[in-house]
Amino acid sequence: SAMVSDPAALSPSPLLWLLLPTFALAEVVVIHLPAQRSSHSHTLREIPAIVGLTFLAPQQYVLAYVIGGGLALLLWTRLKGLKLAFNVAMFALEATVGALVYHLLVGGADPISPRAWLAALTAVLVTDLVSAAAVTAAISLTEGEFDDHVLREALRSGVVAAVVNACVALLVVTLLVVRPSALPLLGVVVVLLVLGYRLYISLAREHAQMRL
């Protein structure tokens, strides 16, 4: 990835334009993992995030993350006003934290080395926890009392889902470097991963109904 001081980092790259709709799609394909009180929403955002962290300059990564996610909320979810502003600000915070953690840990290592794997995994986990902490703070301020269920669910089911998605993303990065022509094969795995999430949710809901 280009360094922050590199003027070329400000010029949009072809990968930036490819990742913009991918970030938007990741916000549309939402997985609602059952939780004790309601559900914990999770996306496949780790996949475009890790690809962007690996191959884009930090500025371009933040741009793709914020604009892609923001367009999905505006055009698909139809969020407006304060809710839209809050979520876009959250995207900016998440992207900035992720980029800082990744580039701090990866140094000049090979993008498909174990050190890069650890940097990418740490970046997405820290990003998810920072996001959950910010949402928890916002909910607590709105309700006037501390409500940590979002943070607790992020630490439980959210971490597991993030690790699985990160591993898939690292396989995408490896194939982009070594054998891009094999990416469609991994695309089948990603589709099956989404279907597996949805099957798990369906079974969990049926089990909850049986208990009732």
Describe the model.
The protein has helices spanning 14-28, 46-55, 58-77, 81-106, 114-143, 149-178, 183-211; strands spanning 30-34, 39-43. The chain starts with 13 loop residues before the first helix and ends with a helix. The radius of gyration is 18 Å and the shape is globular. The protein has a two-stranded antiparallel sheet. Strand 1 and strand 2 (39-43) form a beta hairpin. The protein contains 7 helices and 2 strands. Helix 4 (81-106) packs antiparallel against helix 5 (114-143) and helix 5 runs antiparallel to helix 6 (149-178). Helices cover 75% and strands 5% of the residues. It has 212 residues and is mainly alpha-helical.
In short:
With 212 residues, the protein is mainly alpha-helical. The protein has helices spanning 14-28, 46-55, 58-77, 81-106, 114-143, 149-178, 183-211, and strands spanning 30-34, 39-43.
Q: Strand pairing plus helix content: what structural class? A: mainly alpha
For this structure, the quaternary state is single chain
Strand content: under 5%
Rg, please?
18 Å
What topology does this entry show?
Elements: H1 14-28, E1 30-34, E2 39-43, H2 46-55, H3 58-77, H4 81-106, H5 114-143, H6 149-178, H7 183-211
Antiparallel strand pairs: 1-2
Helix pairs in contact: 1-2, 1-3, 2-5, 2-6, 3-4, 4-5, 5-6
List keywords for this structure.
2 strands; single chain; mainly alpha; 212 residues
